Amino acid sequence: MYVGKPVKRIEDLNFIKGRGNYVDDIVLPNMKYVVFVRSERPHANFKIRSSIPFYGGDIVNPGKDFPIASKETTYVGQPLGAIVANDPYEAYDLLEEVEVEYEDLPYETDPLKAMRDEVKVYSGLESNVGLRKNFEAGEPEKTLKESPVVIEGELKNQRLIASPMETRGIVAWFDGRKLNVWSSTQSAHYLRRNLVNFLGADVRAIQPDVGGAFGSKIITHPEEYAVSFLSTKVGFPLKWIPTRTEEMISAGHGRDKHLSYKVGATREGIITALIGEVVGNLGAPYQDAYDDESGNILSTSRMILGPYLIRNAKVNALGVYTNLVPTTSYRGAGRPEGTYFIESIINELSIELKIDQLEIRKRNLIKSTPYENAFGVTYDSGDYYELIRKSEPYYFAMKRKAEAEGLCLGVAMYVEITGFGPWETSRIYVKSDGKIAVISGTGPHGQGDGTAFAQLAADALEIPMEWVEVQWGDTSIIEDGIGTWGSRTVTVGGSAVIKAAEILKEKLKEVGAKSLNLDVEDVIYENGEVKDKREGERKSLKFKELAENAYKLGISLDVTAVYPVNKPTSPYGIHMALLRLDKETGETKVEEYLGIDDVGNVINPLLAEGQFQGGVMQGISQALYEEATIQEGRIINSNFGDYLLPTAMEAPKMKWEHFTFGVSPHPTGSKGIGEAGAVVATPVVQNALAQCLGRRLNAMPYHPERLAT
Ligand code: MCN
C-alpha cells in the first residue's frame, strides 16, 4: 500500500536536475515576440497613433472593449493592443513608436464609493454593482435587538497580488489547421474551451511545467486571447512573457473584501445573531474573472458562519466594479475572507467579554455532522468537539508559554469547502511491455498531485508505483478535463484515477480469462495478476503477460473514467500561533505555529504537510506583510522590492497534526488541504496581535508603523 505513506515527490527529480520545461523555455522556428501597450490611466477614452503595425481591440475584438480595450480603458495596466517584434528587447524598444492619447474620465477604486453609482467605472454599465445577493435565516433583526451584548464594526480584507515564481506566459502557433498553445495555466482544458469559443478554431492547449499560480492562472487573461488570435493571423509562432511589474498590474488580483457587521451575543459569549454586508471589489468589468455563481463573494458570505451554531443571520453580498485590475480567485477564493471575518468577530467577543479564546469557540461550535449551515452550506462529516479535545493539551501548553515569555497567542478555527465538481476525468492505458500511463484531466502546478495519482493507481491496481507514469496538461492526451483549483485535485481527480483503475481491472480480467480459456466469473484480479479462482487451480497470468496478451487478443487496455461530483466536501481544523510583538517598535515575528486539521484520509502526509506549510505562510503574509497599495488609481508597489513577500527568515517553527474524524464520500476518502493554511492563518495572526494589545484590529497588513505605540 502506498496511500497514507510519505512517498517522495516523483515530480522533483526533473526540477532538481534543471530539466524543467516552462513556457519561456519553448522556442519554435521563426518565433516572434509580443509586447502589450498598457493603459497608464485608470479610466479614459483613448486613441492610438502608431508608426508600426499595431494590433488593437478593433482588430482583436472589433466593437468591444474586451478582452483588449479599443476605446475606453478601465484600469492602469489594461492591455490596449499588441505589437510584434523579433525579440523581447526589440519589442520593448518598439513600444516607443506607439503613442496613446488619453481623454481622462472620472474613476473610482473604492468599492464602497463606487456602489453609490456617482461615477460609472465603465460607460457600458447600468450600475457599478455587478452582483447582489441576500442570504437570510431565522430572525436576525429581532434576535439582535434582544441580545444582551451587541458589537458592531468593519473589517477589511485587503487586495493581494498572487505572486507565483513564474509569471503568466503563452506561446501560440497556428499550423494552418490547428492553433497550438503552450500556456502557464492551471488548466489546459479550460483554456482550450475558451479559445475555441473565442476563435472558432481547433485548439490544442498544453500546460508545460508551471512555476506556481495560486489561483491567478485559472481565468483566460486578455493577453492569452489576444496572442492566440494574432497567431492565427500573422503566420508564425508568437511568444508573450510579461515582466514582473506587468504581471503585478495586470494578472487577476486576490481578496479585496469589506464587511460591516452587527453581532449579538449572550454574556457567556454565545452568538445569537449576525447581520452583515459583504462588499467585494470586482475591479474592472471582465467577464472571465467572475461569471461563476459560486464565486468569491458569495462563498465569503455563505461561509461567514464558520463552524459555529449561528441560526439567525443575514448577509447582503455585493460585488462592485471599480477602476482596478479585476479580482479573481486567490488561494481559498472567498473562504479565507469568510473565515477572517467570523474569527475576528469571535476574537473581539473573547476580548470584550474576557472569555478564553478556545472556550468561546467551544461554546459556539456546531453539535454534529452532517450539518447544514443557516445559508445552506453542508459540512459533510467530522467531529468538531473531538478536534477541540485533541487541541486542548497543545493550546494550554502554548498559553503557558505565552504567559511565561510575554508572547501573543492567537487561535482560529475554520471550516471550508473543497473538491468542487462538476466532474473530472482520468485515462489509464497499458502498453504492451506492461508500463502504465495514468493521465489526469486536472492541472497540478506544484502541489505534487502527480505523486498522489501514482500512489492511488498503484494501490488500486496492486502493482509497484515504479510501473506508473503520470501525465496531465495536454488536451490531446485525454478527451477533456477540468483543472487544479479549489483543493479538488487529489479528491476529485484522484477518485477519477481510482474509477479508471477499476474499469481497467475488469478489462484485465477479460484478457486473463480469455488467455486461460476460462469464463470471467472464474478469475480474480489480485496483486497485479489474474488468477483462476476455482478450488485447487493454480493457473495465473502476471501483469506483463496480460498486457502482451491483450494486444494479441485484440483487446484495448485504454480506459477513460469520468467522475461526477455533486457537492463539495468540508475540511475543518483549528490553528494557533505564538507571536512576538515589540510594542514600542511594532515589530512582529511569528515564532511557533501549530495546525490541527481533519482533511479526511491523507493520501500522502509529506505532500499534505507541504501544502499546510505553504498555505500558512501565505496566510501569515496577508496578516503581516502583503498589500497592493493604491494611489491615484494605480498600484504603486508593483515589484518585489516594494510588495512585501515573506522569505524563509519570516517562517515560524511549524507543526502539523491531522486526524480523520470524518472521511469524504469520495473513493479517496480525502478532503482538500491545498488552501486550508491560507484560509485560517491570517486570523490566527491578527487574533494573536489583538489579544496582546487588548483591542480590535481590522486593517491588515500589520506593518510595524500600524502597531507601534
Ligand atoms: N493531499 C493529501 N491528502 C489529502 C489532501 C491533499 O495527500 N487529504 C495532497 C495531494 O496529494 C496534493 C496536495 O496535498 O499533493 C494538495 O492537494 P489538494 O488539497 O487536492 O489541492 P490541489 O492539488 O487541488 O491544489 C490546489 C490548491 C490551490 S486551490 C492553490 S491556489 C494552491 C495550492 O493548491 N496553489 C499552489 N497549493 C499550491 N502549491 C504550489 N506549490 N503552487 C501553487 O500555485
Q: What does this protein look like?
A:
- With 709 residues, the chain is α+β, with helices and mostly antiparallel strands.
- It has 18 helices and 30 strands.
- It has a seven-stranded mixed β-sheet with strand order 3-5-1-12-9-10-11.
- Helix 9 (296-303) packs parallel to helix 10 and helix 13 runs parallel beside helix 14 (489-515).
- The model has no long low-confidence stretch (mean pLDDT 95).
- Bound molecules: pterin cytosine dinucleotide.
- Pterin cytosine dinucleotide binds next to helix 13, helix 14 and helix 16.
Write out key terms for the chains shown.
alpha+beta, five-stranded mixed sheet
Q: How do the strands of the widest beta sheet line up side by side?
A: 3-5-1-12-9-10-11
Strand percentage: 25-35%
Cα radius of gyration in angstroms: 27 Å
Main pleated-sheet profile: 7 strands, mixed
